Amino acid sequence: MKRTITRIVISILALVVLLVLAFKLSPYPAVWLVRYAFEKEAVRVDAALEKFVPENILAIRDVQFDPTDPNSLLDIYYPKDAMAAKSKLPVIVWTHGGGLVSGNKDHLSNYSKLLASQRFVAISIDYTIAPEAKYPTPIRQLNKALAFISSNADRFAIDSTQFILAGDSGGSMITAATANLISSPSYATITKVNPGVHPDQLKGLLLYCGIYEVDNLNSEGAFASFLNTVTWAYFREKDISNNEYAKTASVLNYLTGSFPPTFISAGNKDPLLAQSKRLAVKLSSLGVQLDTLFFPDNYEPALGHEYQFTFDEDGKRAFERSIQFIDQLLPTKVGTDTPSVVPAF
Fold first, then answer.
1. Which value, in Å, is the radius of gyration of the alpha carbons in the chain?
2. What pTM did the predictor assign?
3. First-last CA distance in the chain
4. Res. 26 pLDDT band, cuts 50 70 90
5. 76: how many CB neighbours lie within 10 A of its CB?
6. What is the pLDDT of residues 58-81, one digit of tens each?
């Protein structure tokens, strides 16, 4: 009996040691845990939005924008009447979040339909998540998607002169970098990524809850462990302090006054709030057209990471502010007699 108990204890200890080693030697074990939690929540959040979606939105799903890349898929959402009338609409291209290590375009299906209901073509793209792909692969994929969308604008009733780029969390990081390399040739050279569209085509950005300084992240508390996992997976290095190319992912350090007009928001209890606020300060100092939606520190109910996808009062407010910001950039949308009006839900 004692020998049996001893063998069990030894087996358990060995398993614990193996698990500890696995977490120390590879980002994959922690990434798998993150994916499970994040994707379960993303499915729940998307399903909760379904009751707000109008019935007149159509979708074209799983369009491949790069024939050499099996992960290069996008979904297109548009108002039924606009497509029937062959109207060309501005396009919002949204890059999903998930900490760069999880998520997919399907998690944005209902939110994309809500955007399309405002007289846009809304496109949600996939990219290869980390560690399966590292920086700057997702940025290259987004730019290839933009080039594909632009060259197929007639096919999808898109006004290719009116691109809005949007993203949440890790998707905001990818979106901001893409906008910067489109508007700043020097950043395109530094990152070694070819722009997918011309600067004149890019009218503005919507950035929610993003990361913009990878070399200035919060290194304390439980969230720090998550961020360490993400950076290790995305750059395939635990410490990027001596990797000058990896540091180019800190888009905030490479911004210029040519950056597109930008809307930025994050919740008052978002662990990444400081990143959004630093980006806003930097863009303001450069004279970039800017709108922000931030909340007092003591705001109740407390708004966490990705608050905008919960369509309570604050989520709806964020949606309305986003649409209003875009409409200011595009005062008269092609295919409509008047600017869009955000419904009261």
1. 21
2. 0.90
3. 67
4. confident
5. 25
6. 999 999 999 999 999 999 999 988
